[in-house]
Automatic annotation (TrEMBL):
Compartments where located: Cell membrane
Organism: Georgenia satyanarayanai
Major place of residence: membrane
Membrane topology: Multi-pass membrane protein
Protein name: Putative drug exporter of the RND superfamily
Domain SSD: 326-458
Coiled coil: 133-238
Assigned keywords, A-Z: Cell membrane, Coiled coil, Membrane, Transmembrane, Transmembrane helix
A Pfam cross-reference name: MMPL
Family annotation (SUPFAM superfamilies): Multidrug efflux transporter AcrB transmembrane domain
Transmembrane annotation, as ranges: 303-323, 330-350, 362-380, 401-427, 433-459, 491-510, 652-671, 678-701, 713-733, 767-789, 795-820
Gene3D superfamilies: Multidrug efflux transporter AcrB transmembrane domain
Gene Ontology terms: cellular component: plasma membrane
């Protein structure tokens, strides 16, 4: 590898214009792709197959409007809303509802009137039904009287017919003996009686039909009254479920509404949210202050803000102090910017086909800048040292690329392994983060071993002004007494001190609590935080993150009353669970097989009590479902947090096994030692626990929160631990390679084990110190990033590098290696025979170059 990089470095230096133009073309392609193919990034954390995701997907399919993206808006005034202000708010919500991309927005004052008047309406309805029942009973009594009259008339008519039949029989028996005139008169009388009876029967038939119609009307009225009573009973039960729920605060100074968007979850359409804000801001003319939740105002179109730029500026200052030349200081920065531009640009170009969270490019930017500057700096530093020793520019560039570039390549490989292995967690968004960041690191390595030599060729000897050569040679005196020498004099004190410091820093880790970010973590002066705070103070913290319950019926029904009864039965059981403040049934599927509920917890979505409530609901979902003949499921922010944490806990052992295992093998190849890789891993554990402790102390427990801009302490981002483990492991191995490779190089060249520790340390310490400060500065700039999720990541990485570089690698490592002496480089013979010699420090290459120079002379 060293020989290959040596040739690559020489070629890049000789063909500097071709190399630079190639990189310019690549960065132009990446920028073009980012500008034309990128899509809005997302803040949605989805895990296909997880409980919360399955429930959310089912809800999206069955009741799309219930799974729609939601943003919350608050309206506030000082002394209560006037009629004009209420009308203005109603007009704004109506205009929002008319926007393309918006499902709807409700008028909070109209909603509050409905909530306040629901019980009065129910009482009025009951009074109306009571009056209707009285009328029904009166009608029933009248109908019974009519029935009695009808039955009496029917009996009288039947008696008349019997009498008529008897007269007819008598006439037929005596008609032959009657005179014709008398017989004709008798028959006429019978016919008249028959006609009278027929008319009576018709009248009775009409009366019976009228009576039956009256009975049908009474039955319909009875059914209507019964349905009304059922509806009122259900309305009363619903009112009890939402008793105390408000859309306008009790003091009348704050109102809230929810805007439903057509985009489901994740990042809302920025054009639509911009229109919503533009319309809402017109209320300022009416004296109404409008604030929006993070979903509406999140601007993740830019991943680089002022705070991040400050970190880069600090890095430039460090480079100037270290290198003493503006041209030399600008070279690592330029190389890093090119690498980041290509890596992040390419990732944004892929955002149209690969779903990415807002953290993904920010993490790639953070790592790409840090390692890009450091990797280029290591090659530059080696080149300057060789120039100071009198080597020619082209030869020095080639050798620096073959030696320091080789170490850079192997160091980058450890970072890439740690990042790419995030895909093993089985969590897609975390895997994408790892792949994008790993790809950016690969680009940074390629830029370091190709673009850096080309730029060094342009600078020539100007990279090292003549007046600096003597000073540089003196500062890099191999055997001068420095920090490593002092550590070597008191190794046990150094070891105990490092373990004690990292142990104390790790104490808060025992209180680690994981969660997902909410509005409380936004900046205090942001509209998102004001929205969160106003809702918490006026409507209850639970309104900031309701739990979504979904019930799937085993036997779907189109009977609306039966469906509503089932929905209310389930809602009442949910309300009976400790910690539930309100339950709002808010959706039914068209086919009648799915019911949706909003369960309002008493506390915020990230509170421990809410986590306990969700666990209770999840544990009881089978029992609750069986009691009502449904299949219950729950989703929402807190449910997602629990699922993500559980899946990460399951995946972490495999992840650590792969990352640590592969890196140990890589370090075994690099250093050809058993103890050095083990020491690197133990030191990494100290770094991780100290970093976790610092993150928990600042972001969860609130220590020094004002200093680091933490508005409200809360749980730590769910995937932060595994992300820190992966990134810090890779970076820790970086410093292990850069520092210990110098020690091994000195030992390979014949120095005593203890002497090689000091000599190798002194050769690398200055540049490693600068590299660590640069990395801390770049990461530290993200502590004040505008993306709330990236802040603890930036802090954890900055603090982790601080501990790892200065305590673990530059103090613990030389102390332990000094105690081990020659044993530090021990390797079993059988293993020594089968391991390939990767020559990471480029000793073989350096000897070859020196031999060639001697032959030339």
């Amino acid at each position: 590898m060293a020989s290959l990089l040596h040739r690559l470095g020489r070629w890049s230096a000789q063909h500097r214009w071709a190399t630079v133009v190639t990189w310019l073309v690549v960065i132009a392609l990446a920028a073009t792709g980012a500008a034309t193919l990128s899509e809005p990034l997302s803040d949605e954390f989805s895990i296909p197959g997880s409980r919360f995701q399955v429930v959310l997907d089912d809800l999206q399919e069955e009741i799309p409007e219930a799974a729609a993206g939601i943003g919350t808006v608050t309206f506030s005034v000082e002394d209560g809303f006037t009629d004009e202000q209420r009308a203005a708010v109603a007009d704004v919500t109506e205009r929002w509802s008319a926007l393309d991309g918006v499902v709807g927005a409700t008028d909070p004052f109209a909603t509050q009137e409905q909530l306040d008047g629901s019980l009065e309406e129910i009482e009025a309805g009951r009074a109306e039904l009571a009056a209707g029942r009285e009328q029904l009973e009166a009608g029933r009594a009248e109908l019974e009287a009519g029935r009695e009259q009808l039955e009496a008339a029917e009996a009288e008519l039947a008696a008349g017919r019997e009498q008529l039949e008897a007269q007819r029989a008598e006439l037929e028996a005596s008609i032959d003996m009657m005179p014709p005139a008398m017989a004709a008169g008798a028959e006429q009388e019978l016919a008249a009686a028959e006609a009278e009876l027929a008319a009576g029967e018709e009248q009775l038939a009409a009366s019976r039909a009228e009576l039956e119609a009256g009975e049908e009307e009474l039955a319909a009225a009875e059914a209507e009254i019964a349905a009304g009573e059922t509806q009122l009973d259900q309305g009363e039960r619903l009112a009890e479920l939402t008793d105390g729920l408000r859309q306008v605060s009790e003091n009348g100074t704050v109102a809230m509404t929810q805007v439903q968007f057509e985009s489901a979850g994740g990042q809302l359409d920025p054009e639509v949210t911009a229109e919503v804000q533009e319309i809402g801001d017109t209320l300022a003319d009416e004296g109404v202050e409008v604030n929006y939740s993070a979903e509406i105002v999140s601007d993740i179109s830019s991943i680089l803000g002022p705070a991040e730029v400050v970190g880069v500026v600090v890095a430039v200052v460090v480079l100037l102090v270290l290198l003493g030349s503006l041209l030399a200081a600008g070279l690592p920065l330029l190389t890093a910017l090119v690498g980041v531009g290509v890596g992040v640009g390419a990732s944004l170009a892929l955002s149209g086909v690969v779903e990415m969270t807002s953290v993904t490019p920010a993490l790639a930017l953070m790592l790409g800048m840090a390692v890009g500057i450091d990797y280029s700096l290591f090659i530059l530093n080696r080149h300057r040292m060789q120039l100071a020793d009198g080597m020619s520019v082209r030869d020095s560039i080639a050798l620096a690329t073959g030696t320091a570039g080789n170490a850079v390549t192997f160091a980058g490989a450890t970072v890439v392994i740690a990042l790419a292995a995030l895909g093993l967690t089985g969590i897609p968004f975390l895997g994408v983060m790892g792949y994008v960041a790993a790809g950016t690191v690969v680009v940074a390595v390629l830029a370091s071993v190709t673009l850096t030599p080309a730029l060094l060729s342009f600078l020539g000897e100007r990279v090292l002004p003549a007046k600096q050569r003597t000073r540089l040679a003196r500062k890099n005196g191999a055997d001068s007494r420095g920090w490593a020498y002092k550590v070597q004099q008191h190794p046990w004190l150094a070891i105990i001190g490092v373990v004690a410091i990292t142990g104390l820093l790790a104490i808060p880790t025992t209180q680690l609590r994981l969660g997902l970010p909410d509005g409380s973590q936004e900046a205090a002066d942001s509209t998102a935080y004001r929205t969160y705070d106003l809702i918490r103070d006026n409507f209850g913290a639970g309104a900031n993150g309701p739990i979504i319950g979904v019930a799937t019926l085993e036997e779907p029904t189109q009977d609306e009353a039966a469906l509503t009864a089932t929905q209310l039965d389930i809602a009442e059981d949910l309300l009976a669970v400790d910690g539930v403040q309100y339950v709002v049934p808010f959706g039914t599927s068209e086919d009648g097989d799915t019911l949706a509920f909003q369960v309002m917890p008493a506390d915020g979505p990230s509170e421990e009590s809410t986590v306990a409530l969700v666990n209770t609901l999840l544990d009881s979902e089978d029992e609750l479902g069986a009691a009502h003949g449904v299949q219950m499921g729950f989703t929402g922010q807190t449910v997602a947090n629990i699922d993500i944490s559980d899946q990460l806990a399951d995946a972490l052992p495999l992840y650590l096994l792969v990352v640590v295992g592969l890196s140990l093998v890589l370090l075994l190849l690099v250093f050809r030692s058993i103890w050095v890789p083990l020491l690197a891993s133990v030191g990494f554990l100290l770094t991780v626990v100290a970093s976790f402790g610092a993150v928990v102390g600042v972001y969860q427990l609130g220590f020094l929160s004002d200093l680091f801009g933490v508005n409200e302490a809360g749980p730590i981002l769910s995937f932060l631990p595994v992300l820190l483990i992966g990134v810090l492991f890779g970076l820790a191995m970086d410093y292990q390679v850069f520092l210990v490779s110098g020690m091994r190089e000195a030992h390979v060249h014949g120095a005593d084990a203890r002497v090689s520790v000091v000599r190798g340390f002194n050769q690398s310490a200055r540049v490693v110190t600068a590299a660590a400060i640069i990395m801390i500065s770049v990461f530290g700039g993200f502590i004040f990033a505008h993306l709330a999720m990236i802040r603890p990541i930036g802090f954890g990485l900055a603090f982790g590098v601080l501990v790892d570089a200065f305590l673990v690698r530059m103090t613990l490592t030389p102390a332990v290696l000094s105690l081990l002496g020659e044993k530090a480089w021990w390797l079993p013979r059988w293993l020594d025979k089968i391991l390939p010699n990767v020559d990471v420090e480029g000793a073989k290459l350096e000897r070859q170059v020196v031999a060639e120079e001697r032959e030339t002379v």
